[in-house]
Amino acid sequence: MLCIISKSNFAPFNIATEEFILKNLDQDVFLLYRNTPSIIVGKHQNTLSEINYDYVRQHAIPVVRRMTGGGTVFHDMGNLNFCFIMQEISNDARSFEKYTLPVISALKSLGIDARLEGRNDLTINGLKFSGNARGVFGGKVLQHGTILYSSQMADLSSALQFNPLKFKDKAVKSIRARVTNVCDHLSEPLELDAFIALIHNEVRSLFADAVDHEFSSKELDAIQELVDSKYNTWEWNYGSSPKFNHRGAIRCTAGTIEIYTEIEKGRIADIRVFGDFFGTRDPSEFEDALKGTLHREDEVIKVLETMPLDEIFGLVTPLELSKALF
């Protein structure tokens, strides 16, 4: 087994690293990494319905879709992420127990009674500190999880605080749970770097063939190419969301403008406008112009800037109007 501790804190790079290992390395691998503030959504989720879009945009938080299912999680530098990529074709749910054992063992050595509860959550006193997801890919199992060690809970709450009334879809929804940080349960303070070393040693003791590994420059270049072509693109992180409907409204000088959009394959498939605004031109011009546009803020604003919005609605700017579409 290769033990790898990523030197990157960029979420698209670390999520791409998991896919690179899965598809290119023959050995079993244990990977540890931390990310600067970022949001990781499950493969089958509607990205926009999982996040607080305005908060994410304001704070320039990367949003990355992973290869596995499950719910959305928030990462920051107080959150440790671990990943096992193993030669195993079984889809046995007991692997959650197998691959979370090093985490539970490490915490027990610190006097913390951590447990695997439900299907894939690790808890302390009934509070969740780790969520885990897994997938089977061509004879390999990829199982990864988070460990809330000293995460900023306020940021987590703000980033994942969305309005469910805006969306109607069939995508898998995250189930929010009461969460806790590991550091709050320690009898004595322990730096996260020391905890990382403890997890690392637990894995090396459980897997006799474990050796440390660093990526070559060629491997790093291949991971970066995957970042550029997939994990840092709007098409993968947002455009791959399932079909969904969105409802938004703004109150502006022109009045109340309410917009219903149907999004399919990342594009506006249909759109309807309602409100108490006074315009001299039919809103159908607005609707027709946006059909087929990528449901991405910069692309929408680009279209709006070409339109006579003051004649259709009254006094409203492209930026104001775009807020009703996201």
Topology diagram in text:
Layout: E1 2-5, H1 11-24, E2 29-33, E3 38-41, H2 53-58, E4 63-65, E5 73-75, E6 79-87, H3 95-109, E7 114-117, E8 121-124, E9 127-137, E10 140-148, H4 153-159, E11 167-169, H5 192-206, E12 211-212, H6 217-231, H7 234-237, E13 244-252, E14 255-264, E15 267-275, H8 284-290, H9 297-304, H10 309-312, H11 318-322
Parallel strand pairs: 1-2, 1-12, 3-4
Antiparallel strand pairs: 2-6, 3-5, 6-10, 7-8, 8-9, 9-10, 11-13, 13-14, 14-15
Helix pairs in contact: 1-6, 3-5
Supply the key terms.
326 residues; alpha+beta; 4-stranded antiparallel beta sheet; 8-stranded mixed beta sheet; 15 strands; 11 helices; single chain
3D architecture notes:
This protein is an alpha+beta fold. Helix content is 31%, strand content 27%. The protein is built from eleven helices and 15 strands. It has helices at 11-24, 53-58, 95-109, 153-159, 192-206, 217-231, 234-237, 284-290, 297-304, 309-312, 318-322, and strands at residues 2-5, 29-33, 38-41, 63-65, 73-75, 79-87, 114-117, 121-124, 127-137, 140-148, 167-169, 211-212, 244-252, 255-264, 267-275. The strands form three sheets. An eight-stranded mixed beta sheet has the order 7-8-9-10-6-2-1-12, with helices on both faces. A four-stranded antiparallel beta sheet has the order 11-13-14-15, covered by helices on one side. The protein has a three-stranded mixed beta sheet with strand order 4-3-5, with helices on one face. Helix 1 (11-24) crosses helix 6 and helix 3 (95-109) crosses helix 5 (192-206). The longest helix has 15 residues, at 95-109. It is elongated, with a radius of gyration of 22 Å. The two termini are 44 Å apart.
